[in-house]
Amino acid sequence: MTVSVNMHGAASPAPELGQLLLDPKFSAPCPRPGMVSRAGLVEAARSNGRRLVAVTAPAGYGKSTFLAQWAEAEDRPVAWVSLDRFDDDPAMLLVSLASAYCRAGLGSASLVADMAGPGVSVLGRAAPLLASALRMSPAPFVLMLDDLHELQSPVCHDVLSVVISGISVGSQLAAASRSEQPHLPRLRAMGEALEFGAGDLALGASGARQIFAHAQVSLTAELAAAATERTEGWPVGLYLAALIAKQSHGQESAVTGDDRYVADYLYRESLMRQPEDVQRFLRRTAVLDQLYGPLCDAVLGSSGAAGRLRRLEASGLFLIPLDRQRHWYRYHALFREFLLDELHRTEPDLIVTLHQRAADWYEAHGSPALALEHLLDTTDWDRLVRLADALAQPTYNAGQLSAVQRWYRAIGDANIERYPPLAVLRCWAAVLTGDTAGAQRWAALVEAASFDGAPADGSASFDSARAMLRAALCASGPEQMMADAAFAVADEPAWSSWRPEALWLLGEAHLLAEHPDEARAVLAEASAAATTTGNAETIVICDFHLASLAMDRGEWPEAAGQLERALATIDEHRMHDYVTCLLAFAGAARLCVHRGDLTEARRQLTRAMRARSSATYVFPFVAVRLRLQLARVYLAIADPATARQLLRETDEILTRRRALGILTGEVEELRRVLAPTGASATVGRLPLTPAELRLLPYLQTHLTASGIAERLFVSSHTVKAEVKSIYRKLGVSSRHDAVQKATAIGLLGALAGRYAAGVLALLASPLPPPVTAPRMILIPTRRRPGR
To answer: Could you tell me the pTM of the whole model?
Structure first.
């Protein structure tokens, strides 16, 4: 699967629309006339000194209003995020949090870029990196998260618990949610949380009188007390009562806090008092997450929506402005839920059309990802799967794997099966993330499928896309891999973004078949083509292979130049955890050993070792070659224990993929070199296994052993045994110390990328004479007779 230099590609809105959408997301709502002051609560929140302020109450209790008033009164920088359903993706959530922090003037744009990337480890790399940035903030700040209940994914809450650990003394996180916040119990037990609930946010008689006064309805003290009692101080109920009283010429009506009654009441007393055209406008625009005049016009097939939105806001009909220019709005969440119920009740046949019109507008304005979101609510499956086919790759490359997986779930396996090109991409995602079961399932489906049209992902044909996937899986050995790759090279035209992929796979097949000269020529062509089309992943892996071949020939300056470009590309596109990029780190470690810089070699080894669990038997030549390269370097720095662990992992891969050409022989050579002899067999501390590396990031979170077991789909006993093994291998005795040690040595957080600049400088410097000790152990490459 190719990685475009334009990381966000077709998945991102056009710049103008994107800015319009982002400004309100990262800005506290504008103060609204008539709001009841929450100064007492604001002062209590600001002065308590606790890291977390949790505001938990049902809809309509003024949680957002409280946070907005606090933001207005705050003298510390405020980083605001209005969370929505699109943030229910760990990578997207981290991007939003980092964006808010940087917009508050506390960080640089590079921090936002570090949060995303193809294959990025959200728990192992991105979340600890953001926590570290918060911990080292140049000034105390307040991070405000509105609508935290929008986060349903457990991984999002895991990520958030890591980020919270970066909130240091003097700074605070304020989170508003309708439901219990998962990270709250642990912080409550530590005495680091201040909690506000519905009782704290409920209004008294004085608040009721203020609300009614703003609606220009006079209310005696007795009536104010009665209204407060009937609503139980529910703010939105009091606002509604005042609105209806104004429309009823001062006849205050009863409102209770029961949600079902409120829905009926809103319909009978509020919506029905509006003209029929206003009722239609409200119901039909409720399909939109955010309201914008031109967008509403497109959805309704009318004009004048911008002016109507401003009038509705002025009338108090639960319309919340999202920017100071009054361009973008949203309905109060409870009111929108009611309007959608009414739309389903009164005009169910129109809903699909409304979503299709919204999709048309978003796609025409450069935001196909938002168009796809609306298409998920339609039955236009052909258009939906084609758009998903076009978007899956750039969205995955931007690090939003959870978003792609959510699309797949919503589309459904049956619809994906009916559009085989999308099944190819789904299989690629499984291959690149180490999902062996998923990769096998979708590979079998693709193999049996047929498709005559042009795929929307840019490949020349379904047959070509399938041939490349088959070559990557290499289930039938190098000869079949070469035939499949050659077919794809012949099928993909020079301008195709998939041609570099096909060339790379052909070069890999030549390497496995022991054709180094042919491989070098094809890989050089692939690298040049990838540079033209912007396929960053292909640049990295081809440049690694060219560097490795150069090192085998003893041409170290040439190898240094190739590795310099590969590492720079990885850093530029934040591909540090991407499976095919790990080989570049192994190659850099080999070069560092040759130059005598063992410290830098170990750092580069760590960059590869920490993410190697994603290199599995469904990507066999990458998985085996990576471990061979690493094992050789570990032998060169006198660490046979780690080399043996890598050999064991390689043997497990070979039990499923035996036909790997020259790599099979190189594994046997490594086995002979590592044949245990006496005490040397046990020298050195064993590295963390792939299973332990998968578990390690969860030690940063709020999860117990049983919670971690649920995330990883293993038993609590397995988790406890692996945690003990991690402690032993890291030389620690507690969870906190394990996290600290893992961060220090680069298994967690930012350390994997921190030394990139130094490595590039090293590679660009003149080559010193090669060292003689420790010696780099090279496993001989077998050549056919006459070659």
So the answer is: 0.81
